[in-house]
Amino acid sequence: GTLQKFVDDLFETIFSTAHRGSALPLAIKYMFDFLDEQADKHSINDYDVRHTWKSNCLPLRFWVNVIKNPQFVFDIHKNSITDACLSVVAQTFMDSCSTSEHKLGKDSPSNKLLYAKDIPNYKSWVERYYSDISRMPAISDQDMSAYLAEQSRLHLDQFNSMSALHEIYTYIIKYKDEVGAL
Question: What sequence ranges are listed for the domain Plexin cytoplasmic RasGAP (predicted)?
Fold first, then answer.
């Protein structure tokens, strides 16, 4: 109960196309449109498949990782209690992105029962988010290329290619036998 507002705020922020004044990144719209185009191209009209593709490429691959591992983004220590709590939030997040109904009973794990009443609401946020994105104007290939070129130019000095090469070299030296066997 103490954390409910924070979990709601997190989910609402993630599943909003323009929450608190920040616009949806172009790359998300472009990626979701690409997935819809591929579904159309291959005559995949099943809503659940399209929904699952979108859930797997952004919320479940990116956001679950950030929720479960905040130390990847923030300079913090995550103890076992925090890890257990974040696992419950991450599981709730995953359940919210699912199109299947979860039948709960007396044998259901307690972490599933904690947010069971909230998941239908969260699922509606996910559906609204995908629907809002689909209604946004399409991003042309030219606009996406221009955006990426601009981002590359803006962050040109933030990437040290020699440092990256050194990291790759260190990795290869460490695992040279395994790499050589490939």
Answer: 1-179
For 73-108, b/e burial (b = at least 16 CB within 10 A) is eeeeeeeeeeeeebebbbbbbbbbbbeeeeeeeeee
What number of other Cβ atoms are within 10 A of residue 32's Cβ? 22
- The DSSP H or E segment spanning 150 is helix 141-154
Question: Is 15 exposed, middle or buried (CB count within 10 Å of its CB: 0-12, 13-18, 19+)?
Answer: buried
Looking at residue 78, its amino acid is K
CA distance 114 to 126: 19
Structure tokens at 108: 């259901």
Q: Is 57 helix (H, G, I), strand (E, B) or coil?
A: helix
- Tens of pLDDT, residue by residue over 22-64, are 788 899 999 999 999 999 999 999 999 999 999 999 999 999 9
DSSP 70: G
Tens digit of pLDDT for each residue in 142-159?
Answer: 999 999 999 989 988 887
Residue type present at position 127 = E
Rg for the chain, CA atoms, rounded: 20
Alpha-carbon torsion angle 116, 121, 127, 131, nearest 10 = -170
This prediction has a pTM of 0.79
Length of the chain: 182
